[in-house]
Design goal:
The complex is a heterodimer. Chain A contains one helix and eleven strands, in the order βββββββββαββ. Chain A is mostly beta strands. In chain B, the strands form two sheets. In chain B, strands 2, 4, 5, 6, 9, 10 and 11 form a seven-stranded mixed beta sheet that branches. Chain B has a four-stranded antiparallel beta sheet with strand order 1-3-8-7, with no helix packed on it. Chain B is globular. Classes of the chains: A mainly beta, B mainly beta.
Chain lengths: ~120, ~110
């Protein structure tokens, strides 16, 4: 099935470091979402982006909707141990081209924070 | 306000059997989407239901079917289970088509 490309696939970082990850698509999206998933749980919404160039923050998290509409970025500042988890991007293509209102998910970035 | 609840949380079935997974949408949400998440992968779209009608389907065979009820809760049915159907099945509800999803905790299905 279709999935978005996320990078990096995984990363180990020291507590206090900043983290950056991104998500790219071959087609244009009109909404980008970022979710975090912890073991045994469903994804939890972190940030939603609706406009090209939009920059939105949620505490230490900041996400941007790429100008080309084909990518999105998530930054975590001053990481802490509870940031551990898998981060997924999800994009929604134009309904006129996709025919549905579905969201397509990325492959995930696995984050591990070393205390 | 209750969130999205899924049942059962875990399930073990034998190849060839049939299974029904259930999802109660968040209060006020009229759209339910189902996703399959294999180990180490991102969620894959199965289908979406909007006001009791199927509203889009991913690349899954017809043995994956669903229903949405008047109270907007939903079921996912899988017939003739195969080993590759082993996965976490996630249900997500949304206020309307295209709005952000709220996910349940999922049902872990193991086919042996």
């Amino acid at each position: 099935g279709q999935q978005l490309n996320q990078s990096p696939q995984s990363m180990f970082i020291q507590e206090g470091e900043d983290v950056s990850m991104n998500c790219t698509s071959s087609s244009i999206f009109n909404t980008w979402l970022w979710y975090k998933q912890e073991p045994g749980e469903g994804p939890v919404l972190l940030i939603a982006l609706y406009k090209a160039g939009e920059l939105t923050s949620n505490g230490r998290l900041t996400a941007q909707f790429g100008i080309t509409r084909k990518d999105s970025f998530l930054n975590i500042s001053a990481s802490i141990p509870s940031d551990v988890g898998i981060y997924f991007c999800a994009g929604r293509p134009w309904v006129l081209t996709s025919g549905t209102y579905k969201y397509i998910f990325g492959t995930g970035t696995r984050l591990k924070v070393l205390a | 306000e209750t969130g999205v609840t899924q049942s059962p949380t875990h399930l073990i079935k034998t190849r060839g059997q049939q299974v029904t997974l259930r999802c109660s949408s968040q209060s006020g949400h009229n759209t339910v989407s189902w996703y399959q998440q294999a180990l180490g992968q991102g969620p894959q779209f199965i289908f979406q239901y909007y006001r009791e009608e199927e509203n889009g389907r991913g690349n899954f065979p017809p043995r994956f079917s669903g229903l949405q009820f008047p109270n907007y809760s939903s079921e996912l049915n899988v017939n003739a289970l195969e080993l590759d159907d082993s996965a976490l099945y996630l249900c997500a509800s949304s206020l309307d088509q295209g709005t952000v999803y709220t996910f349940g905790s999922g049902t872990r299905l193991t086919v042996v």
